[in-house]
Amino acid sequence: MTLLDKDTYRHKGLRKELVALLAKKGITDRKVLAAIERVPRHLFLGDDNIFDVKAYEDIAFPIGEGQTISQPYTVAYQSQLLEILPKEQVLEIGTGSGYQAAVLAELGAKVYSIERHRKLYDKTRTTLNELGYKAVKMFFGDGFEGLETFAPFDKIIITAAAPHVPEKLLSQLMLGGQMVLPLEIDGATKMVRITRLEEKEFDQEIFAEAAFVPMLKGKVF
Ligand code: SAH
Q: Judging by beta carbons within 10 Å of its beta carbon (0-12, 13-18, 19+), is residue 109 exposed, middle or buried?
């Protein structure tokens, strides 16, 4: 029995309901909704089947090491702000469960994802391999450094609350490229989209408040 055999009609039905809920909550991008409908979120929550049904409620979940898989609405919202086009090179900071990376892969992106927690990195690499997400390349490292070797990126997504905009990530963004991140602004965490207009000229849009685990420096072995 492969992991994918554990994605039943019941789960697919629950995903349809989740997608309807996300549309009701204001997600309008049909490609994002279609991607969410394809990714078996319950298989990203670990081995415990208790999570089967809960996986399709619009809530965040603990995934071990004090980390969480983002709420489906947040994943959809960040994906929508990124406006992914097929074949785009996307850098993700904070692989976590791998769920957001899988959604980006379903949108046709080539995903480079960095995780600072060794155990999460190992576990998620197995999951993404078993599910056949070949478009996702995983890296164990500190996201503040980015991935110089594969830069520049069309899009960058940070899935942990950043204390400031990481300088190196700005420099690894393509001209015209965009970065979506939860950013600490005046004691609150706000969703922000930064567009690189010129070599040294950036535009910043600020959106709604959001809850995330913190983006931390260094690696955890
Ligand atoms: N995208 C994930 C969300 C996981 S929560 C998902 O879909 O499940 C955020 C993740 O960011 C955690 O796994 C945390 O360990 C990781 N993280 C925090 N700071 C980081 C950093 N500097 N570099 C890489 N990963 C980081």
A: buried
State if pTM tops 0.85: yes
State both tokens at 129. 């391999």
At 177, the amino acid letter reads: G
Distance from the alpha carbon of residue 9 to the mean position of ligand 1, in angstroms? 30
Cis peptide bond prior to 152, omega within 30° of 0: yes
Evaluate if residue 12 carries a pLDDT over 60.
yes
Query: Measured from the CB, is residue 41 less than 6 Å from ligand 1?
Result: no
Name all domains of the chain by residue range, CATH numbers in brackets: 3-209 (3.40.50.150)
| Residue partners of 51: CB distance under 8 A and separation at least 6 | 42, 45, 61
The active-site residue, picked from 70, 79, 97, 113, is 70
**Mean pLDDT score across all residues of the chain:** 95
Ligand 1: centre distance to CA 220 (Å): 12
Amino acid sitting at position 69: I
User: Residue 1: what pLDDT?
Assistant: 77
